[in-house]
From TrEMBL:
<keyword id="KW-0805">Transcription regulation</keyword>
<dbReference type="Pfam" id="PF00126">
    <property type="entry name" value="HTH_1"/>
</dbReference>
<keyword id="KW-0238">DNA-binding</keyword>
<dbReference type="Pfam" id="PF03466">
    <property type="entry name" value="LysR_substrate"/>
</dbReference>
<keyword id="KW-1133">Transmembrane helix</keyword>
<dbReference type="InterPro" id="IPR036388">
    <property type="entry name" value="WH-like_DNA-bd_sf"/>
</dbReference>
<dbReference type="InterPro" id="IPR000847">
    <property type="entry name" value="LysR_HTH_N"/>
</dbReference>
<feature type="transmembrane region" description="Helical">
    <location>
        <begin position="221"/>
        <end position="242"/>
    </location>
</feature>
<dbReference type="InterPro" id="IPR005119">
    <property type="entry name" value="LysR_subst-bd"/>
</dbReference>
<comment type="similarity">
    <text>Belongs to the LysR transcriptional regulatory family.</text>
</comment>
<keyword id="KW-0804">Transcription</keyword>
<protein>
    <submittedName>
        <fullName>DNA-binding transcriptional LysR family regulator</fullName>
    </submittedName>
</protein>
<keyword id="KW-0812">Transmembrane</keyword>
<keyword id="KW-0472">Membrane</keyword>
<dbReference type="InterPro" id="IPR036390">
    <property type="entry name" value="WH_DNA-bd_sf"/>
</dbReference>
<feature type="domain" description="HTH lysR-type">
    <location>
        <begin position="1"/>
        <end position="58"/>
    </location>
</feature>
<dbReference type="GO" id="GO:0003677">
    <property type="term" value="F:DNA binding"/>
</dbReference>
Amino acid sequence: MELRHLKYFVTVAEELNFTKAASRLNMSQPPLSQQIKQLENSIGVKLLERSNRTVELTDAGRAFLEKAYKILIDIEKAREYTRKIYKGEKGQLSIGFTDSALYDLIPIIQSYQSVNTEVDITMHQMSTVDQLKALQEEEIHIGFICTPIQKSNLHIIPIRKQKFVAVLPKSHKLAQSDSPINIQELVDDTFIVTPRKVSPVYYDTVMSIFHKMSFVPKLTITAHISTAVIALVSSGLGIALIPSSMKNLQIASVVFKELDFSPTIETSVVWRFNEKSHIVNSIVTLLKQYIAENTSKHR
């Protein structure tokens, strides 16, 4: 029994007329009758009662018709599922992101999901270092990281550069100042930073700020994620320099202050050179469009 036998049988069962069924199938009646006989022989039971004027389903034919419908529907579902997988319209997408990349990631995910409703997205908040490892081990498909990085086996597209801002507790003496802060004014403060092994780009950028300003922090406390850094600031344990997108957190007990110079940190999207997933290709296409539109707006 072959798939075509099922299609032929269903058509004849629906029409109960070989001439009309043959017309629907764009074939002549004799070959259709022969195909139905082959089907009955392969099953070993009679499915249709034929006379000169009528065609009727046998009890076995009615039972087989129900199963034939189910088989054909399941096959069509399998075909559609496979097509969607191939086109990147269905499947799973795993994304890593740093704190500072979150607010670029949100509109991209919203736009992507509005079109690709059958793609399951899993998001993992991870440091740049952890994302690079996860990409290498194929635990995530795409990452939003701080750059530059030394990796030759990854596609890298810069998304944007962010200025650093100072985050202070509301009780800080400079919290109500209307002027940008000179970092020398913070010489007596404890700085909260992310360790270099967690975020080398962030750590090196902050340290270069201190170096350029001939500034040595009085004391530092380390915290592994930006939200923890801000939480420590809000509790009055110190101050921090963070990417400006973190101002979106809007924590009531801290204030974000501009600096009187403009150090920046770059956010980029990365994925493997050998990535073959059509889902990744589809979101990369959207990312390129998003970056182009935002670059145009900025200009």
